[in-house]
Amino acid sequence: QVQLVESGGGSVQAGESLRLSCAASGRISSHNVMGWYRQGPGEERELVAGIDTRGKTNYADFAEGRFVISKDNAKNTVFLQMNNLKPEDTAVYYCKLTQLTSPNFWGQGTQVTVSA
Asked: Do 69 and 36 form a contact (C-beta atoms < 8 A)?
């Protein structure tokens, strides 16, 4: 069964950076989309960024130009470089794997806390 493990979260000051990683293991199609979502306290889970195996990316408006998603297809690992972090970025960040004929898979989440 597919498993996703996130890492790289932590507590930082506003303006600092973090790099999140998500390693996927198991039976994974060569055609897939991996992405990052986040959920703050009392908030709905929302898309941060996604990337497919060809490198096509999409970003939420709040992430465009500030966050960068990348992927190592050979290792089935996706990264999220988060620059110029703001207090409103505080959330649990989740990795998601989407495949055409399979259910979505989610990681356990990693906490990101940004203080002013």
From this structure: yes
